[in-house]
Amino acid sequence: MFDVAIIGAGINGACVAHELTQKGKRVAIFDMEGIAGGGSGAAGAFISPKFSKEGELRELLNDAFVYSLAFYTENFSRFLRKAPLLHIAKDEEEAGNIRAYKQDTPLVLCTPPKELLARLTPHAKTQESVCIEAGVADAQGMCRALCKNAQIVRLEVRSLVYDDGMWIINETYAAKEVVLATGAYEPLLREPYNPIRGIWGHRIDVATTTPNDFSLHQFVSIAPSLEGTLAIGATHNVHYHPQKNKEPYDIQAGREELLEKASRTMQLENVAVLKDYTGLRSGSSDYMPLVGRVVMAEETLAAKAQRFDTKNPDYELFSYYPNLTMINGNGGYGFVLAPYLAKMLSEYIVSEKEIPPRLVPARFFARWARRRK
Ligand SMILES: Cc1cc2nc3c(=O)[nH]c(=O)nc-3n(C[C@H](O)[C@H](O)[C@H](O)COP(=O)(O)OP(=O)(O)OC[C@H]3O[C@@H](n4cnc5c(N)ncnc54)[C@H](O)[C@@H]3O)c2cc1C
């Protein structure tokens, strides 16, 4: 029997596996596609903060950025390439956000290197921008390294049954605890308040004779990948879903969109697309991730002692799946958030350290229960 079974070996599951094995837990990690076979394998894996207006998402992402960059540097530097990141405004609204950001961010900003500025298109050069020391991870290599002390089981989990104090997986494996890290895939537990949705993305690796050692973000990101090529990404396509659309995804149109957007920031010479990466990233309806226990809606509603028409219900009164938690909804910042959230989740699992209420899945149950008649 395992102490913990993690379902999903993307960056979220992999970071939880790392934290729990470091804490001496016997961990199995299940994935039907193998390590980083989902959204994580498609990611450009840029480690960057969010250059937006003040708010709880920006605050979370900035804290996670500082934590995760140090975490990867200290523990997995082989799979991280550090490079100054220049984020350039796309439009006037973003220019205003960047100006405000530069005034009030606690993060240390840098001066953009002259060689980098020289390579920008004339229009990009005139736009508001902000520069910071950031990084790009090798998505596959990083996930594999994070999982190295866990038992990896390549298997589609179809059934999860709690029986006699343990979780039984596909009637075969047993674990005291389960962590769901299944990204934008079909949820294993069907709860009516589930806020997770998948957003399709496409990125490419290209060979080019234009040298570039820096990370640039504007309409898309352009960054050196670990193999000496450039990574360009990603599109954000809410109209395509691999399980819902009848037509296959149009790779050629996706490439053209990525290259056209990149060309507005930097003129790349003699470009050849080497590899395409596509996948779904999972986001939540309030854009914040979900970390912690999962509410059993039916059981909670049946306990009539509670009121759901209040803005601040007591989450402790809800009914939860026993010894089961989730980590999901990282949006376009999976590699930034995962180490930070996995630390929180593992501390909750091992020593019941409280997870901030703004991150717990119970908030979505509470909103759903308040709205229903
Ligand atoms: C094109 C693209 C570019 C991106 N670029 C960046 C970036 O630059 N920086 C960044 O930080 N983030 C980026 N992201 C976002 C990032 O990839 C995601 O936030 C992150 O991968 C989510 O990780 P995850 O572990 O939650 O999900 P996933 O990586 O999707 O992992 C979920 C895993 O669960 C497995 N699974 C699901 N159900 C089952 C089941 N029943 N049984 C067994 N296995 C199951 C799947 O096979 C999958 O491997 C990008 C995403 C895309 C698509």
Q: What are its keywords?
A:
D-Amino Acid Oxidase, Chain A, domain 2; eight-stranded mixed β-sheet; 2 domains; 11 helices; globular; binds flavin-adenine dinucleotide; 373 residues; alpha/beta; FAD/NAD(P)-binding domain
Describe the structure.
There is one protein chain. By secondary structure, the protein is an alpha/beta fold. It has 2 domains: 2-38 and 142-196 and 285-371, 3-Layer(bba) Sandwich (FAD/NAD(P)-binding domain); 83-136 and 202-280, D-Amino Acid Oxidase, Chain A, domain 2, CATH 3.30.9. Helices cover 30% and strands 27% of the residues. Strands 1, 2, 6, 7, 8, 9, 15 and 16 form an 8-stranded mixed sheet that branches. Strands 3-5-4-11-12-13-10-14 form an 8-stranded mixed sheet. Strand 11 and strand 12 form a beta hairpin. Flavin-adenine dinucleotide (FAD) is lined by residues 7-13, 30-33, 37-40, 42-46, 156-157, 181-183, 185, 188, 201-203, 233-234, 277, 279, 281-282, 328, 330-336.
